[in-house]
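thought: fold this chain, then report.
action: predict
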Amino acid sequence: MKPIIGIPLRYEYSRENKPIIYMNEYVRRTFQRAGAIVYPIPPVQDVNYIETKGNEFKPLTDEEKEIIEMSLDKLDGIFFQGGYKFTPYDRYLLERVIDKNIPVLGVCLGMQMMSCYKEDVVIELNEKNSNHKQEDDKILSHKVRIDKDSKLYKILGKEEFEVNSFHTRHATKNHIYKVVGYSDDGLIEAIEYPNDTFNIGVQWHPEISYSFDENSKKIIDSFVEAAKRNSKNK
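observation:
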């Protein structure tokens, strides 16, 4: 049985300047290649998610929370994709999947959102001399070093490796998630929730380099396997 991976959709304007919600095609194709069923999760509040600022969102209603629970009941894992903005809806989803011990993988903006778990949002701009915004999808641009005492090390079996990089902002330290990886210029690149469930955030995009990078493939495949085990244990 294939595990079902939930993908919270992101918010953007189309080329025609129309508001849309979307899933990155790298995400869909990578998880299908990895043997998972992709399940899009749209936002639930009747607001313009693009233009509404974080402090302007109203609290989720009981009905909106119930809609979220209906989605979560179908999921074996959840993948927080990249983007330019996360909302209280994303943060509530993270809270619920942690409560339910659902495997989680977050990348780029997704990891940054995870780094704010239960805390005020603090995402900082990269310094001007920090080049973390590559243009070519088919390369790896800088090194990351991870702790040997981490889930990522158990998955990859190495302390240092190269990753891609597509971000202009970076996460700051969180008192709940453990920082387990840094870039060679000192930015946070990997975090993990301190329990036995697969709950990892990385600043890079393993879904983009899945087809040509062994480390990326191991991370995605390990996440899908964790979701598969979760499905069997339901």
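thought: worth noting. The chain has one domain: 4-233.
final: tokens above.
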